[in-house]
Amino acid sequence: MKHLYKTLLTAAITAYVCQVHAQKITKDTIRLDSVLIKESRSKNLPDVSGNYIFAGKKTNIIYADPGKANLAGNNARTLFAQVPGVNVWEMDGAGLQLNIGTRGTDMHRSIETNVRQNGYNTNSDVVGYPENHYNMPFQAIGEVQYVRGASSLQFGSQFGGMVNFKIKQPDTTKTFGFESEQTVGSNRFFNSYNAIGGKAGKVSYYAYFDARSGDGWRPDAAFNYRAYYASIKYQFNTKGSLSFQFSRSDYVQQIAGGLTDDMYNATARQSNRFRNFFKPAINIPALIFNYNFSNSTKLEVTSHVLFGERSSVQFIAPSNVADVVNPALGTYNPRQVDRDHYKSFTTEARLLHNYTFGSVSSTLTTGLRYANGSTHRQQKGVGTTATDFDLSLIKDYGINLDLNAINYAAFVENIFRITNKFSFTPGVRYEGIKTTIDGVVNNRSTNVNYKRDRSFPLFGAGLQYQVSNTTQLYGNFSQAYRPYIYAAVTPADQLTLVDPNMKDSRGYNADLGYRGKLGQAFTFDVNGFFVRYGNRAGTLTVQDAGGANHLYLTTIGNAQTKGVEAYTELSLIRGFNPQSGSDLRLFNTLAYTRGRYTSGSINNAGVNISLKGNKIEGTPDWTNRTGLTYLTGHITSTVLFSYVSKQFSDANNTTFNPTGATGIVPAYKLVDLAFNYSFLKNYHVNFNINNLTDQKYFTRRINMYPGPGILPGDGISFNVGLGVKL
Domain named TonB-dependent receptor plug: which ranges (predicted)? Predict the structure, then answer.
């Protein structure tokens, strides 16, 4: 601990020395030894970006800047620090999965968020099983676009909004450029990020390779991660281009498993699982065609394939049952093997046209989407008694299903600029979904044959008024939906029934906000929101004519969330003295989210319990993150304080469970530090500390993979990286 604080002191002294050497001040930029300080960048997306319309919507832009977030560790809490209301579930400290939710949506692998990279989806099966197993290294990100509320019209299935990770672009002034950063840290953490890029004639390219490994903060939590990306763009004339991109991420992770409350209270840094492993591998090749017919009309067509798998081998038992040698067998118990294989194809075409309506210009965007996704699911295979990552079977899978979902959609959205200050943006989307499931469950004794077609329109509209040159009012209303996923219509055993009339979740989002900048000192975005989430899926208990109880998979009820999200930033130096060679920025992201069930029931130990008035699981009332960023031409450093209030882990609002799988997730407070120092034009060193005050906390309980039980958050940890960019 003393070593860490000595490092902090050294960083502070370095910051002061570099500030003293500031020189050659100009009006628009500050030059410090040939390093430039730029003005504060926009916090929200413009009205139109590419072929997308964002006018009247609640949006955020996140810049993946070293010194503001722990990029080498893929720490989502620090990356999304300036977006109000983002709840982050931390499965581990390695950043292997992205688990985010907002406004009452499920965080598990961002399952209710439309996750994209460079505009195309990375969710494993967008309609039927939209968990996001793919994850790029944060060091490769140029910016993150986050759209909430009215995002369903242009992007489709989700209540949690759309997140688009835009990978860095090459420096087109160079034929060949190279960047590399090597990072080491606590618990034998090592990360190696390496990238090349440039432009030769009509061809530009960018590619990276990232490798990350470590032992993890808890015992039995080792990991080995790899990520690859290559992009080649051919600008065949001044109007058009064709890009090919290929992405892959894969890792093998040892799963320490969940803890009971008693175990966690004794010590969070323990494990009673060492034979549990998880391995996803996702590949995404994509083609992107852009063509500008004129200055007013442009077309984008994106086609991509996603193929890969997720595999796990685990000793499945409650967290209070240790994985030890079975005396009756003389060996360990056999483990359970589960495997999914994904294969999908998606094409989206978007046309944007600017035209004059009356005396002012307006903008139209329209598009078509076709997606065909398949999942081959094999679960409950009886594995070996080995202790390593071994997917061999001694008995066949008890569940073997072929799952397919076809989705087609068309949308149109238009910005009508009524005046130079006021715009109205209505839109409509038409969705068609076809779901089929074939196979066997319950040790192959129960056949499953499920087919369902449905189609429906979604409507929405946004308003925006430019109050001044730098501030605007915005508001939107948009219908939203979430198709029921495969798990909601797949019986677990012979005593489980499925409602043949299962409904998709339907509802709407509404926002009303005010955002902008006052002078050079104060930036803000404050909005109120309301979300109605109807037809949430779940299980009830029903009794057949013979008196036997059955679990009934059906629509269990409705929920709603409402609240306030506020972002504020104050420039404490340059806001009052624009010629200063440094700046100190204080920001705060605050969200109050009141999520409640308004009707419905759910099964609990064979009894249907009313949900009315219960809090929505995984939804804290308060989320607040406060940061202080220090900037000079050479230094970026941020101290971040995070507070998340208590939340329940299940819809029944269970307060205690002996296995730890359900219960209250207590409030927690964390402090993180990021520091980056650039020197000799092409080099930099960074230093990150997570959980600086070594708080004992956890973000989620879980009753499935990778639990069941409490998943402790990491204690204090650090990493140090050295990088070069040529």
Answer: 73-159
For 153, which DSSP code? Answer: H
> How many Cα atoms occupy the beta-carbon half-sphere of 659 within 13 Å?
17
Strand positions, DSSP E, 358-445: 360-383, 393-395, 399-417, 422-441
- In the numeric block, the tokens 């390496």 are attached to 194
Q: What percent of the chain has pLDDT over 70?
A: 94
The reported pTM is 0.93
Q: Specify the pLDDT at position 495.
A: 66
Q: Tell whether omega for the bond before 285 is within 30 degrees of 0, i.e. cis.
A: no
Residue type, 355: Y
CA triple 351-355-360, angle to 5 deg: 140
* Amino acid occupying residue 69: A
* Tally of CA atoms within 13 A in the half-sphere of 518 that contains its CB: 8
Comparison of pLDDT for 504 and 209, the residue scoring more = 209
What is the residue whose two structure tokens read 């019209």?
153
DSSP of 297-331, one letter per residue?
EEEEEEEEEEEEEEEEEE--S-TTS----BTTTTB
Whether 703 and 254 have beta carbons less than 8 Å apart is answered as no
Question: Binning pLDDT at 50, 70 and 90, where does residue 20 land?
Answer: very low
AA letter at 655:
T
Cβ-based neighbours of 122, under 8 Å, separated by 6 or more: 115, 116, 132, 134, 247, 282, 284, 306
Do residues 267 and 303 make contact, with C-beta atoms less than 8 angstroms apart? no
Question: Measured between alpha carbons, how far is 647 from 619 in angstroms, rounded to an integer?
Answer: 6
- Alpha-carbon distance 691 to 639, whole Å? 11
Please state, in angstroms and as integers, the Cα–Cα distance from residue 696 to each residue in 11, 180, 268, 666, 667, following that order.
Answer: 26, 34, 7, 11, 11
Both tokens of residue 602?
């759910």
Concatenated DSSP letters of 113-148: SEEEETTEE-SSBTTTB--------GGGEEEEEEEE
* Cis geometry, peptide bond prior to residue 578 (ω within 30 degrees of 0): no
CB 430 within 8 A of CB 457: yes
Query: Strand 114-117 and strand 162-167: pairing?
Result: parallel
d(CA 303, CA 286): 6
Longest pairwise C-alpha distance within the chain: 88
Q: What pLDDT was estimated at residue 496?
A: 74
Alpha helices in 210-295 (DSSP H): 261-266
Q: With CA atoms as reference, report the closest residue to 132 among 238, 282, 1.
A: 282
Cα(504)–Cα(639) distance, rounded to whole angstroms? 43
Residue 395: closest CA among 343, 443, 441, 456: 443
CA distance 215 to 271: 13
Using left for φ > 0, alpha for ψ between -120 and 50, and beta otherwise, residue 516 falls in left
Separation of alpha carbons 510 and 153, rounded Å:
13
Tell the burial category of 17 from Cβ atoms under 10 Å away from its Cβ (0-12, 13-18, 19+). exposed
pLDDT, position 487: 81
pLDDT at residue 556 is higher than 90: no
Q: What is the number of H-type helices and E-type strands within the chain? A: 4, 40
Please name which of 693, 699, 700, 698 lies closest in space to residue 716, comparing C-alpha atoms. Answer: 693
pLDDT per position as a tens digit, 167-195: 999 999 999 999 999 999 999 999 999 99
CA-derived radius of gyration, the chain: 26
With tokens 């076709």, the residue in question is 370
Place of tokens 């964002």: 54
Q: How many CB atoms lie within 10 A of CB 442?
A: 17
- Name the phi and psi angles at 614, rounded to 5: -70, 150
